[in-house]
Structure formats: C-alpha cells, structure tokens
Amino acid sequence: MEKNNFWNEAAKCGAVIGVILAVSNMLENSVFFTEGMGFIYLMVLEFFAVAALHYYLLHRYTRRRSQLYTADEGFTFGQGYGFLLAVSGFAGIIVGVVQAVYLHLIVGYSAYIDRYVAWMTGLFAQMGSASSSVEGILSQAITELQNTPAPSILKTLWGGVWSSLLFGAIFGLISAGVIARAPKPFDTEVNE
User: Fold this and answer.
1) Is the whole model's pTM more than 0.70, yes or no?
2) Which one, of 121, 145, 146, 147, lies nearest residue 134 by Cα?
3) Which end of the chain has fewer surrounding CB within 10 Å, N or C?
4) Rounded to whole angstroms, how far apart are CA atoms 94 and 96?
5) How far apart are CA 137 and CA 119, in angstroms?
6) For 98-138, how does the pLDDT look when each residue is reduced to its tens digit (9 = 90+)?
C-alpha cells in the first residue's frame, strides 16, 4: 500500500464497510415484514453489533493508513479524519444504492409503508393499555406516513450517504484523535 493511492484505498475500505452496512440495513428493514416482538430485540442487538464493527473497521483502516507515514512525517488528525470521511462517503454510496434498489424496486415504497404501519399498529396493540395515552400521536403519525409522497431514488441514495457520513464523522472524531501523532524528526530511538 502506498501513500499516494488515497482514493483507491478509501474506495476499497468503503466498499467493505458499505456492504456490511447495506446487509445490516436490509436485515433491519426485513424485521418490519415479520411478526413478533422477539425480532425487535434481535434488531437492537444487531444494530449495536454492526455499530461496533463499523467503528472497529474505520479505526483499523485508519491505523493501517497511518502506518504508511514515518515518525519524521507524523500522521495528523486532519489526515486521519479526511481518510475516515472518504471511506464513509464510499460506504454511504453503496448503502444508498442498496436502499434505493430495495425500497423502490424490490419492495415498493407504498407496500413498505403499508407494512410498516401494520407493524407499528400491531406493536402498540400488544402494549395494551399503555398505548392508549399515545393513541392520538400514533394515528397522526400513521396518517402522515400514508400521505407523504415517496422520496425520489436520488433522495434515498442521499439518505444512505448522509447516514454513513454522519456515523463516520462521529466515529472519526474518536479514531482520528487516537491515531494522530505529531512528527518527531529528532527522535533518535525511532530513526535508528
């Protein structure tokens, strides 16, 4: 791996993360087409597992990138953060494309909303008397969901990119800060 192949490396790392996030997103969306509360708990566990894996991979790829720079050069926060955002951008493009294909071509937006409304109504029906206090809010949310026009494929794509960039920006603050190191041109231990 060479230092000058920034975009190629960002694209490769972003493709790996993008595929993982796209599969995760498809699994989470599939939960709305199943019955039962057990899948909700599984979805929450899956979300946290994928978030941890997402952070780990971003950190690992950035650390690997930082090792290309000698102690004389250092590796700044900006270099690490820029690489993380580039990786997240490429991952977001993959997630957005998969979301657009899944939502608009495979399932259909209106069928997805109808199933989501049925799932949400069933969830509140299982809650029983606890749901009576939020019945007005629930009916308003359902009406709004059903009356909102379907987003364009471009908006769906941008939603995937935006969510990946947001997670990358948050995770990147931590990773880039931990991995950054100042140049040490006079450190005899490292240079010998």
Assistant:
1) yes
2) 121
3) C
4) 5
5) 16
6) 999 998 888 888 888 888 787 777 777 776 655 556 677 77
Structure tokens at 28: 């989470």
How far from 131 is each of 21, 124, 136, 142, 161, CA to CA, in Å?
A: 32, 6, 10, 14, 35
Report the candidate in 28, 156, 9 with the shortest Cα–Cα distance to residue 84: 9
55, 170 Cβ separation under 8 angstroms: no
Q: Which amino acid is at 100?
A: A
- pLDDT-wise least confident of 16-25, 80-89, 183-192: 183-192
